Each structure stands twice: as structure tokens, then as C-alpha cells.
């Protein structure tokens, strides 16, 4: 048989899973079936899998359908972002930050730009602050549409109509963002001190029009699945994140708010013009899969409210600081800075160490999905393998952020 | 609704003074970074003890770990711990200097369980070994990768990068 | 509008409505099989990164890939003929990519979607990034963009349809060699032989 078809050697993660089975068998928890040493089977899910939302590999130890242990293996999308940051100037790195959490590009850019502005002591213009909030909230709605859409698409493979409705409406939002920045997904729109372009003529009216239509569209999505008995049975009571987990693992975002912890960085660590805006922090109480879905739907409605307020309060003025109009070189003074903000997935932070040169000395992303994924083995233990798909969809992972 | 945020709001200078007083021997260079972060340096040997006491502190319990970053500052390595206090809604950034010759530091996994994967990443990228870590192996790079890429002296090699 | 479509996109089939009564149409087996194959391609869901989201968007309501007969995205390589590599391939993923490519049955085609799959993209100088998926598998169509719009993906799919229509069913079409003339030590480029 040619070499390329030979069974590959088990790698570290699979060896670890096999070692754990041996240890538990040695402890006396082996099989109760005649002739079998142990009941468990080690199954590989991914890295190419329709339901793992990207190149995540799960080495699952199964006892029949029951999940005994999960070892997530990441790094299949590690694109050396943190090393590349050391070879690009601060300005050249802005498009690359977009690609960290690629469904929420505006939010990622804002996190990076905010940190560099704080290091360099630049304050953005007031009009730019309001437009930044509008873009971030529009991207939050689009990101939740992808998250919840693909989550329901996994429960029944593309069988629910919800994902089609959500992606259709996501196109309306992407149209708006494309008019402003020129791109549908990788916007490259934020600049230090402001934004690249001002809003084009007529954009505010189009945005207002869409914001009037969106709440009814969100009602439509909810009507599609919320009363479905199978959806409820698969989601209610599964994958409960407790408040102790949130403290231990640093879970943030909708995953934490679904368990009753009202921590929203737009309120607890306010930045930009959020203190002037009126919105509610969406929380639920049980912390299961269904509550996480509900928090995301509620957040979409709150984002609509925020965008409408910003459109009403939008001041006139420049969106760029005058002297920083053309591509430029920025050299923040030596120092370190960490800022974080509320990404659709949680606390997205950027830690930059600057040595006074044009290139960052060290750039580290505090990614919410990386922290949320640590909880995964604990959430899946004791559930059936089919629940693994529902739970992983509800955690909302984007591998671009986990692997960077 | 057990977990509350900001039940004990304190002024930043008061927090810095409190930490400097309670940890006078172990923490040095305690300063405030606006708006809500205290930055301090910690002795490598005292890290585990400081971590436990920080978490259990009655007024400013730093209960959640945000991230652990490894930084290569050419003459030495640094392990940066960023922790969050629910009671005061503030952050603390701890810098621990690690010599390059013997790049080891105690793990804080038993204090903050979130440190598990963050320390694995710091080991993977910068090469700081965390003593006592339950499972210190590479997390982002392939298992047989040689070297630690985020070190300043890392050179791209054909064995790590055959498809350059 | 039809005169704006380039000639090479128009396949030369007879217009069936020209026949007044049931008739006999003669053509070659190559034509029939390549016509059927090009209009019912089963793509492989190999979305790795950001381009995968644009690939997903192209499958949904606004940009409907079902118009080209390609909406059947199968997650298993055994049932696919087209692998759309959408996203950055890195050294950890390269052996997986190669194994999945090998598991697809002939005839199979590969589209490199996005700058990362063509040449490493914005991450070209990463220590872990493979500079182009054609160092591992032979690529038939390259779609530039970062990410390419769904319309760009469709142009690539249409170009692929033309390429499929040139595939000979009766006589073996020589497989294109991988672009890297020196096969990498770890994952050699596939060579079509009796085992293929």
C-alpha cells in the first residue's frame, strides 16, 4: 500500500486521550462487559467538520453516545499574527487586525486602534466616535446573525430556514458597510484619530430605514424556531455555564450574560461615547444553550436602538484629525497598554508593548473565544455527542481569534 | 444573581497604596495606569504566594485571570499576568521577570484555572516553562515544531517551515 | 444582455426548442459527460478562514450558487469533486489538506480561493504559513481577492466549468503538475498513476 494511505501515527492529543483511558481503567473504571477492557472509543471530530465552525479539532472520548472527555486541539489556523505585528508598522497592521475575528471586523479594528491611540495620546474626533459606535453595533448585529444562523444550521444540517433568513438580512447590513468602507468583510476603515471616509450622502437615511425594518425581521427569526419542541428539547438545560465557571475561566460576553452576570464592557468599562447612550444589558438566568441564543437575539434589538440613537445624535465635523490624513508613520512613546472592549463574543483586548519605534514591540490579543473554549471539556462531559454540536454552536467560536 | 460587579468601589490611588502596603516585600514599582489598571512588578520566587493572596484578598480579590502573555525583552523574558477584580471593577497587571538562561516560573493554574491554556501559549510562543503545570505542551504550533517563534532571535528554518 | 457574456462561457449545445418533433441528437460521450459534470459539481466544504464566510454567503439567498448546480456542499471528501480551499493553509493543516485531497475520487478539481490560498496572502511571511495551496495540491482555478466577493467566486466557478468541459472522458487527461517543481519533503504532490 502506498505510504500516503497509511494510518498516521497518533499525535499528542490522541496519545493523551488514550493515556487517560488507560489511567481510568487502571483505577478500576473499566468495562463491565465480558471480554472488553474498557468501553471508550476515541473519535476525532475535525479539523474539517461541518459543525465545528472553523478548523477546530476535538478528540472526543466516547462511551457509546456519552462524552467522557474532550481534548480540543487548536492551531490549525495559526497565522503568526503576533509575529507579523513586529514586522509591520502600526498603520500597516490595521487590515490584518480585521482578520482576527473575521465576522466582526469593525470591532476588532476598533480594539487595536483604541490601544494605539491610548499609547500615542491621540483623541479621535467626536463625529468619528459616533460613527465608530454605529459601525461596531451594525457589525454586532451581522456577527450575531452569523453566529445564531450557523448554530441553528448545525442542529439540523442546513435544514432550518433561519440561517437563510439571517444571511439574507446580513446582506442588507453588509451593503451599508460596503457603501461606507468599500468592502463587505475586511473593512480597513478605522484610522488613528478617526476613520478613513466620512459617511456618503444618503447613508443615514438608508441606515435609518434598515433599523426600522430590523426589529420585525428579528421577530421573524424568533417565530421560526422559538416554539419548536425539538429546538427547545435540544437547547434547554444543556451546556450550563455556572457563575463559578465565569470567575474561574474569565468567560465574557453573551456566554456570561446568559448565566445572569451582567458584565458588559460597554457599561462596566465604558469607552468612546457609550456613557451617553441609553441601552440595556441583556441577561438571562439559566446559562444554558437556549439562554445564550436568547441573549444574542436581545442584543440584536439593543444594537438597533443604539444605532438609532447615534444617528439622531450624530454631530457635524471632521472624521479625521487634520494632520493625519495621508498614510503616515506613528511612533508611540515607549510603554505598555491594554484596552479591551465588548466584541460580539466577549472581552476582546489588545495588549501592546511599544519601544518607541514605528513597529510594535509585542502585540498580544486577549481573545474571548480562546478563553471561552477552555471551558469546553467541562461543558461537554456527561452530555451526548449530539449535544456537543449544539453546545459548540452556542459558545460562538471564531477560529481566527482563537488561533490568531 | 450572585456575582456582582463593583460592590467595593475604591479610588485607584487607594488601591495602589493598599497593594503596596499589603505586599510590601514582594511587589515593587506599583503605579496606576489610567483609568482602571494598577501595574506592578513581582518577584519570580514569590509569584505563587502573591497570586494566592491576591485572589483571597478581602477588599480587592483578584479572582479572574484575563490573560498571561510572554514577552521577550532581549535581556530577559517577562511573564505578564492581567487579572480582574470583581469587587472593585479594576485590573492589575503583574510583570514577572524571567531570566533567559533558566526560563522557569511557577504556574498559577491552581490559583486561577484560566491560566492553563494561556501558560501553554506562553510556553509555545516564548519558551517560558511553567513549573507544576498539569499538561505543558504546545497549543498553537504543531507538536514537533522546534524553537519558540516570538523570541526576538527566532529564525525561520526549513524543518519548521517546509512549504515556505 | 447575452451578448455581454464572453463567448467562452457559452457552451455549444443545440437549442432543443429548434426541434419540432422527437429527434435523435448525436454527439460525443465526452460532451455529454463533461456537460453533466460541469453543471452538477459537488463542492467540498473546506472553508478554513475568512473566505469561508464569503463562500457561505455565496451559498445563501442573495448570491445563490444553486443556479450553477453547485449547492450540494458535502462535508465528506468521498462524495465531492471540487475542493474549494478558502482560507490560509498552515504547516499544521497541510498534512490534513493532503489527506483529504487524496480521499476525493477522480475526477477532482481544486479552486484556490483568496489571496492566502494563492500565495499566502497578507500572512506570507509567517513562520507557519504555507505560501499557496499549490505547494501541496494541484490547483485548477485561482480566485484572487481578500476575500473575493461571491461574484468573483462565481466567475471562478464558471471558469472551472469551462475547464471541466475540456476534460476527456474517453482518453485520460494528463493531470497538471503542482506548481512547486521540487516536491516538499513532508507532503509530496500527488502523481496520477494506477492507484489514483
CATH topology call of chain B: Beta Polymerase, domain 2
Low-confidence stretches of chain B: none
* Known CATH architecture of chain B: 2-Layer Sandwich
Structural class of chain C: alpha/beta
Measured by DSSP, the beta-strand proportion of chain B falls in 25-35%
- Shape, per Cα inertia axes of chain B: elongated
Element order of chain B: H for helix, E for strand: HEEHEEEEHE
The major pleated sheet of chain C works out as: 4 strands, parallel
- SS strand fraction of chain C: 5-15%
End-to-end Cα distance of chain C, whole Å, is 43 Å
Provide the residue-averaged pLDDT of chain B: 89
Strand order of the largest sheet of chain B: 1-2-5-4-3
Assembly state of the chains shown? heterotrimer
Approximate helicity band of chain C: 25-40%
Number of helices of chain C: 5
Contiguous helical run count of chain B: 3
Say which CATH homologous superfamily of chain B is assigned. Answer: NADH:ubiquinone oxidoreductase Nqo5 subunit
Into how many domains do the coordinates of chain B divide? 1
If you had to describe this structure to a student in words, what would you say it looks like?
The complex is a heterotrimer of chains A (404), B (164) and C (196). Chain A is built from 16 helices and eight strands. Chain B starts with 11 loop residues before the first helix and ends in a 33-residue tail after the last strand. In chain B, a hairpin with a 4-residue loop joins strand 4 and strand 5. In chain B, the strands form two sheets. Chain B has a five-stranded mixed beta sheet with strand order 1-2-5-4-3. A two-stranded parallel sheet of chain B has the order 6-7. Chain B has a single domain, classed as 2-Layer Sandwich (Beta Polymerase, domain 2). With 164 residues, chain B is of the alpha/beta class. Chain C is an alpha/beta fold and 196 residues long. The radius of gyration of chain C is 18 Å and the shape is globular. The C terminus of chain C is likely disordered. Classes of the chains: A alpha+beta (404), B alpha/beta (164), C alpha/beta (196). At the A-B interface, helix 9, strand 6, strand 7, strand 8 and helix 13 of A face strand 3, strand 4 and helix 3 of B.
Amino acid at each position: 500500500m502506498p505510504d500516503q494511505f497509511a494510518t498516521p501515527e497518533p499525535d499528542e492529543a490522541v496519545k493523551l486521550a488514550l493515556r487517560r483511558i488507560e489511567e481510568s481503567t487502571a483505577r478500576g473504571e473499566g468495562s463491565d462487559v465480558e471480554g472488553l477492557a474498557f468501553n471508550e472509543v476515541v473519535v476525532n471530530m475535525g479539523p474539517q467538520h461541518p459543525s465545528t465552525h472553523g478548523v477546530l479539532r476535538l478528540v472526543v472520548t466516547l462511551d457509546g453516545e456519552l462524552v467522557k472527555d474532550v481534548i480540543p486541539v487548536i492551531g490549525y489556523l495559526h497565522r503568526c499574527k503576533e509575529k507579523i505585528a513586529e514586522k509591520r508598522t502600526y498603520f500597516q497592521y490595521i487590515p490584518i487586525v480585521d482578520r482576527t475575528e473575521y465576522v466582526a471586523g469593525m470591532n476588532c479594528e476598533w480594539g487595536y486602534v483604541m490601544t494605539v491611540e491610548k499609547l500615542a495620546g491621540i483623541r479621535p474626533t467626536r463625529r468619528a466616535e459616533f460613527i465608530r459606535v454605529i459601525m461596531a453595533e451594525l457589525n454586532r448585529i451581522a456577527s450575531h446573525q452569523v453566529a445564531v444562523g450557523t448554530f441553528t444550521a448545525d442542529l439540523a444540517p442546513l435544514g432550518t430556514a433561519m440561517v437563510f433568513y439571517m444571511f439574507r438580512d446580513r446582506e442588507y447590513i453588509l451593503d451599508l458597510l460596503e457603501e461606507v468602507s468599500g468592502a463587505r468583510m475586511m473593512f480597513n476603515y478605522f484610522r488613528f484619530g478617526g476613520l478613513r471616509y466620512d459617511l456618503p450622502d444618503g447613508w443615514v437615511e438608508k441606515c435609518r430605514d434598515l433599523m426600522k425594518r430590523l426589529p420585525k425581521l428579528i421577530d421573524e427569526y424568533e417565530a421560526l424556531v422559538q416554539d419548536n419542541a425539538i429546538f427547545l428539547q435540544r437547547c434547554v438545560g444543556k451546556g450550563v455555564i455556572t457563575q463559578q465557571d465565569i470567575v474561574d475561566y474569565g468567560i465574557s460576553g453573551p456566554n456570561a450574560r446568559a448565566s445572569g452576570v451582567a458584565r458588559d464592557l460597554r457599561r462596566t468599562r465604558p469607552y468612546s461615547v457609550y456613557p451617553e447612550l441609553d441601552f440595556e444589558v441583556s441577561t438571562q438566568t439559566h446559562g444554558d444553550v437556549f439562554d445564550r441564543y436568547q441573549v444574542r437575539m436581545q442584543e440584536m434589538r439593543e444594537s438597533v436602538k443604539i444605532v438609532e440613537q447615534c444617528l439622531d445624535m450624530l454631530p457635524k465635523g471632521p472624521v479625521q484629525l487634520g494632520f493625519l490624513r495621508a498614510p503616515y508613520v506613528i511612533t508611540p512613546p515607549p510603554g505598555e497598554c491594554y484596552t479591551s472592549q465588548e466584541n460580539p463574543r466577549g472581552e476582546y483586548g489588545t495588549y501592546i508593548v511599544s519601544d518607541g519605534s514605528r513597529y510594535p514591540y509585542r502585540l498580544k490579543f486577549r481573545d474571548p473565544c480562546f478563553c471561552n473554549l477552555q471551558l469546553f471539556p467541562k461543558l461537554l462531559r456527561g452530555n451526548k455527542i449530539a449535544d456537543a454540536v449544539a453546545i459548540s454552536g452556542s459558545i460562538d467560536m471564531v477560529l481566527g481569534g482563537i488561533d490568531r | 444573581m450572585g456575582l456582582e460587579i463593583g460592590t467595593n468601589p475604591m479610588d485607584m490611588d487607594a488601591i495602589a497604596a493598599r497593594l503596596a502596603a499589603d505586599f510590601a516585600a514582594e511587589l515593587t514599582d506599583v503605579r496606576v495606569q489610567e483609568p482602571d489598571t494598577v501595574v506592578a512588578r513581582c518577584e519570580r520566587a514569590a509569584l505563587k504566594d502573591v497570586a494566592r493572596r491576591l485572589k483571597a484578598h478581602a477588599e480587592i480579590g483578584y479572582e479572574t485571570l484575563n490573560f498571561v502573555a510572554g514577552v521577550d525583552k532581549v535581556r530577559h523574558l517577562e511573564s505578564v499576568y492581567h487579572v480582574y477584580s470583581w469587587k472593585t471593577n479594576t485590573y492589575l497587571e503583574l510583570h514577572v521577570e524571567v531570566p533567559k538562561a533558566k526560563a522557569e516560573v511557577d504556574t498559577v493554574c491552581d490559583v486561577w484555572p484560566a491560566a492553563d491554556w494561556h501558560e501553554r501559549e506562553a510556553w509555545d510562543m516564548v519558551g517560558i516553562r511553567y513549573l507544576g503545570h498539569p499538561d505543558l505542551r504546545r497549543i498553537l504550533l504543531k507538536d514537533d515544531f522546534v524553537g519558540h517563534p516570538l523570541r526576538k532571535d527566532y529564525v525561520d528554518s526549513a524543518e519548521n517551515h517546509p512549504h515556505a | 444582455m447575452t451578448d455581454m457574456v464572453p463567448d467562452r462561457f457559452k457552451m455549444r449545445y443545440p437549442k432543443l426548442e429548434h426541434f419540432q418533433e422527437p429527434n435523435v441528437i448525436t454527439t460525443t460521450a465526452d460532451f455529454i459527460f463533461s456537460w453533466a459534470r460541469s453543471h452538477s459539481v459537488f463542492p467540498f466544504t473546506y472553508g478554513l478562514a475568512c473566505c469561508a464566510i464569503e463562500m457561505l454567503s455565496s451559498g445563501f439567498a442573495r448570491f445563490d450558487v444553486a443556479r450553477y448546480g453547485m449547492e450540494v456542499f458535502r462535508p465528506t471528501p468521498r462524495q465531492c469533486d471540487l475542493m474549494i480551499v478558502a482560507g490560509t493553509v498552515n504547516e499544521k493543516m497541510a498534512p490534513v489538506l493532503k489527506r483529504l485531497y487524496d480521499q476525493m475520487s477522480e475526477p477532482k478539481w481544486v479552486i484556490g480561493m483568496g489571496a492566502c490560498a494563492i500565495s499566502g496572502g497578507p500572512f506570507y511571511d509567517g513562520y507557519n504559513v504555507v505560501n499557496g495551496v499549490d505547494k501541496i495540491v494541484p490547483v485548477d482555478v485561482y480566485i484572487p481577492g481578500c476575500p473575493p466577493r461571491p461574484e468573483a467566486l462565481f466567475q471562478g466557478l464558471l471558469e472551472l466549468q469551462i475547464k471541466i468541459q475540456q476534460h476527456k472522458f474517453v482518453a485520460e487527461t494528463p493531470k497538471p503538475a503542482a506548481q512547486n517543481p521540487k516536491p516538499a519533503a513532508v507532503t509530496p504532490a500527488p502523481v496520477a498513476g494506477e492507484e489514483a
